[in-house]
Amino acid sequence: MNTHMRTALDLAGRDVPVLPLRAGKVPFANCPACLYTSCGGRPNMKTPGPCQCPRPCHAWAAATTDTDVITGPAWATAWRQAAAVAYHPGGIGLTVVDLDHADAVAWARRTLPATRTVPTTRGEHWIYQGAMSSANAVRAGVDIKSTMVYARWLGPGTGTMTPLPDTVRALIVEKPSPVRPVTVAVPAGGGECRHRTPAYLERGIAMAEQRITEASSAVHATVYRTFLAVLSAHGRCGCLTDAHAARLFTAAQTKGESPRHCTDAWTNARTALGM
Question: pTM for the full model?
């Protein structure tokens, strides 16, 4: 067992989701079977997809606490080639303020409340309790690493971790994603209708919208699983309409999903159900 795997197992034992990084602080590249949308993922490896990946090729979404995965044959090559261990901060309710140089560190000391700090190659990681959206270059030399990203594990650091302050949250100015009209294929009817009243379908769609809008991480996977559940329950009897599908797409787009990836997730869910 090499040092990186041992570190990963120690972190997983503390419920920290981990993954290996290769040289250059980058995750392992997508395997050929997972390129583009063939398994629901994206070329930049920012989102997971429903597949059986032979290697940890979905970046932050590959992070796990499952020791069978960490020590298993699928990750064996990755650990032999790994240059570092990474973790998913948002997955354990943390936010890392990545300060890339001395000027950024000086700014943080003037501006942010003290918290646990970890030295990096050129600067520091300031770690707060609480998760938020992630963004790069929120100011010169400052990145926010929390949900849907990974951060290198560089040790436990020093100091007492404090709650995520509004000062850090304010560094990201959220802009709602534009919601564009969508055209989707809704399965034709033919099966026996189990929906005794319109309220049954309406309740199902409303619950699906809520599941998507409340997702705090793994949004792409949540969208896919929600589409799969809706189509499984309502997709064969003719009750599901374009208007219902558009509501789900709108919910997904407000969480940052593009129209294209909404369509891909819908198509993949239909294919999985044989529709």
Answer: 0.60
